[in-house]
Amino acid sequence: MSVGVPIRLANGVGNLPDASKWMDNYDYLTALVNGQFIKNGGLELWTAATSFTNPAHAATVADNWTVLKTGTLGATVDVSREASILDSGTYSMKINITGAGSANSIWDIHQSILNPTAFASETVVLGVKLRASTANKARCKVYDGTTAAYSTYHTGNSSFQLLTALLPVAAVPTELTATIEINPSDFTGAVYVDSVFLYVVPSQISTTARAALAYTPLAAGFLPLSGGAITGNIAMGTNKVTGLGAATANGDALRYEQLIGLYLALAGGTMSGNIAMGTNKVTGLAAASANGEAVRYEQALRVTGGTLTGNIAFSPSTAGVTGTTTNDSVAAGTVGEYIESLSSANVNSAADVTFDDLISISLTAGDWDVSAFVGWENNGATWNRYEIGISATSGNSSTGLVQGQTWSINLFGSTSSTMSVNPVIPQFRISLSGTTTYYLKRRAGFSAGTPRTTGARLCARRVR
Fold this sequence. Notes:
By secondary structure, the protein is mainly beta. Among the domains are: 51-218, Sandwich (Jelly Rolls); 338-462, Jelly Rolls, CATH 2.60.120. It is built from 3 helices and 21 strands. The strands form 4 sheets. A 6-stranded antiparallel β-sheet has the order 1-3-4-11-6-9, with helices on one face. Strands 12, 13, 15, 18, 19 and 21 form a 6-stranded antiparallel β-sheet that branches. A 5-stranded antiparallel β-sheet has the order 2-5-10-7-8, with no helix packed on it. It starts with 18 loop residues before the first helix and ends with a strand.
């Protein structure tokens, strides 16, 4: 489009001053000076997608344009970016009604103008270029929360027509919404939308000036003084942003006084309150080396377990590791692990002065305290000795047996008198580098009958 005043005035003979023409130009230029307040009025921006199949109520189609659908039976309407049938720029919006709605159906696209109170008691003109093939089905509307102003309907001549709606805005507007409204109750077909604008105009704007208003993309790429969204970075150089409002929500920029003394500088400082991390982490932490410093994950002994690289010193010295308060057992491989083997059977001795294995246990690598108990009786036999021992060697062998440590020997004069004895091997240390089986061994010396054992226990407790 070209930009120019509605009427060109000329000097010279026969060109008398014309107040009406001059005011037409004044009204028109006043509107342009105030700026255009519709975002993506040329329907050039389609960030989410370029086509939408029957988009739902409240869906965003082209950037800044939202769908409204009402009625007992909603119409079926597809929306797409159109590159062939357009009024200006590169694209328009094609609204294709493929299924008519009920008699009370309304379908529109709309956008809310930012900061509606800035338009209080002003007069605005909403304009749009529409193309339709059915009369009285498409128009535009501007609404301030109290009053709505409508354009005339498109005549249905299959060409782009400029439709405008003029609204004196209320003294206290609650919104300012620009709407392209379609009535799809009894027709199917396409409506094309392009070149949407909204200007603040003099309240007495002339018909000629109003008719000359049009969408202009000249300000595209610039941020209106009324505000908007930046799509790129601002390089401030050594300059400042001044007059900044105080931040009140996520994403707001902070004022200097909101940061200094209230926020921790990247160079470091001293906190005056707690930091609630929620489910987040502190990363990049240096290893702690002094009291009062936070420790890294690998420096801490976790409640779920870990490997100590130093000693644990209790203070006071009367403190210690709290024991269990129930009758369970620790897991295998844990300090305190308990292993035992029991026998309650009456088992006759092997041959005279011959070792055999009564019971056994398997111990994994580590340090163990091991002990044993055996019940002997002569069982009517004439005997003169009974022995028990703990060894890693099985069968008729004394290998590994050390008297006074792992071997209990009891000698006496031969007797057949009834006798029941219970020798024990007190607790002693076994230190292993791998899994080893230990046997509770026994033997007796006898000349008649056969002595027997009446019960036995071989047990071990892991101490480290």
